[in-house]
């Protein structure tokens, strides 16, 4: 295998490991994922630049000079990764100060969707009724359609348990 292919595979592995860590709940693992993915992208930028060439010195043969654009893009990507890492590190530290851990909390809506999926409640279990008489029946307001959404099966107490 050529060195370029090995570096391309290494960049792909770094990006894959970074994406895996980005999907974790700990902010420190998310930070490590951002760092790995950033380094993988930087490596792929340099690999895509082609073979190494000479420095861009006045009087050098233009055919042997390396393309400076990928190097400038990598330098910019390093600065962006540094800023993102500093932000995530500060956010992780503040989360640890306030809560004693750096876990990302579940969103309330995510928990509702997960519980409805476990109970196999699909969107077809809801009926859109646009009349004003449904406001007394306990339906939930749907701001997008301007109407009320009411469940066909189950009770309102089940929805309150889900929340």
What's the structural blueprint in terms of helices and strands?
Elements: H1 3-22, H2 27-48, H3 68-99, H4 108-118, E1 126-129, E2 140-141, E3 148-151, H5 156-162
Antiparallel strand pairs: 1-3, 2-3
Helix pairs in contact: 1-2, 2-3
Family: Belongs to the CPA3 antiporters (TC 2.A.63) subunit C family.
Biased composition (Basic and acidic residues): 137-163
Subcellular location: Cell membrane
Briefly characterize the structure:
With 163 residues, the chain is mainly alpha-helical. It contains 5 helices and 3 strands, in the order ααααβββα.
Describe what this molecule looks like in 3D.
The chain has helices at about 5-20, 25-50, 70-100, 110-120, 155-160; strands spanning about 125-130, 140, 150. By secondary structure, the protein is mainly alpha-helical. It has 2 domains: about 5-55 and about 65-100, Helix Hairpins (Orthogonal Bundle), CATH 1.10.287; about 110-160, no CATH class. Strand 2 and strand 3 form a beta hairpin. The termini are far apart.
Supply database-style keywords.
Helix Hairpins; mainly alpha; 163 residues; 56% helix; NUOK/Mnh_C1-like; CPA3_antiporter_subunitC; 5 helices; transmembrane helix; 2 domains; membrane; Multisubunit sodium/proton antiporter, MrpC subunit; three-stranded antiparallel sheet
């Amino acid at each position: 295998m050529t060195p370029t292919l090995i570096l391309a595979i290494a960049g792909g592995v770094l990006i894959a490991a970074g994406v895996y860590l980005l999907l974790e709940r700990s902010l420190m693992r998310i930070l490590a994922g951002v760092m790995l993915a950033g380094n993988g992208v930087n490596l792929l930028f340099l690999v895509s630049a082609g073979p190494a060439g000479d420095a861009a010195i006045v009087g050098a043969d233009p055919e042997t000079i390396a393309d400076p654009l990928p190097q400038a893009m990598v330098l910019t990507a390093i600065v962006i990764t540094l800023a993102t890492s500093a932000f995530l590190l500060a956010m992780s530290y503040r989360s640890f100060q306030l809560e004693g851990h750096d876990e990302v909390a579940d969103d309330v809506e995510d928990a509702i969707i997960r519980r409805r999926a476990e109970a196999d409640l699909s969107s077809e279990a809801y009926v859109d009724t646009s009349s004003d008489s449904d406001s007394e029946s306990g339906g939930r307001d749907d701001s997008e359609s301007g109407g009320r959404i009411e469940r066909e099966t189950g009770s309102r107490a089940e929805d309150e348990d889900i929340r």
